[in-house]
């Protein structure tokens, strides 16, 4: 897979912002079939930074209920918490 297919979008949330400021990590939504090695290579290729560690979180799909009846499905996702080397940073939402 190409890195444009692996990295779907950056996660924009309070937790992702906190982890970025305090821990030096960046959070991305990634392809379901991507593994840690592919995610590391994709981030290094796309942003020209050194990646030290990758942690992956997976949420499985769950049923969507209205008034006690199942009416659909909430899609699942896979997120990657990418730790960058000291001095490296990815600036895509600075000043927003």
Automatic annotation (TrEMBL):
Q: Does the keyword Magnesium apply?
A: no
Q: Which residues, if any, are the signal sequence?
A: none
Keywords (alphabetical) are: Ribonucleoprotein, Ribosomal protein, RNA-binding, rRNA-binding
Q: What does this protein do?
A: One of the early assembly proteins it binds 23S rRNA. One of the proteins that surrounds the polypeptide exit tunnel on the outside of the ribosome. Forms the main docking site for trigger factor binding to the ribosome.
Which proteins does it associate with, and in what oligomeric form?
Part of the 50S ribosomal subunit. Contacts protein L29, and trigger factor when it is bound to the ribosome.
Q: What is the protein name for this chain? A: Large ribosomal subunit protein uL23
- Family (UniProt): Belongs to the universal ribosomal protein uL23 family.
GO BP annotation list: translation
| Single GO MF annotation | rRNA binding
What GO cellular component is one of the record's annotations? Answer: ribosome
Q: Could you tell me which InterPro entries the record lists for this protein?
A: Nucleotide-bd_a/b_plait_sf, Ribosomal_uL23-like, Ribosomal_uL23/eL15/eS24_sf
UniProt lists the gene as rplW
Q: What is the lineage of its organism?
A: Bacteria, Pseudomonadati, Thermodesulfobacteriota, Desulfovibrionia, Desulfovibrionales
């Amino acid at each position: 897979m190409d890195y444009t297919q692996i990295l779907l979008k950056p996660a924009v949330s309070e937790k992702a912002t906190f982890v970025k400021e305090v821990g030096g990590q960046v959070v991305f939504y990634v392809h379901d079939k991507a593994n840690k090695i592919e995610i590391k290579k994709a981030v290094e290729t796309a942003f020209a930074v050194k990646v030290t560690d990758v942690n992956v979180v997976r949420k499985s799909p769950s049923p969507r209920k209205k008034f006690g009846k199942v009416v659909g499905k909430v899609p699942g996702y896979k997120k990657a918490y990418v730790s960058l080397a000291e001095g490296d940073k990815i600036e895509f939402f600075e000043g927003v």
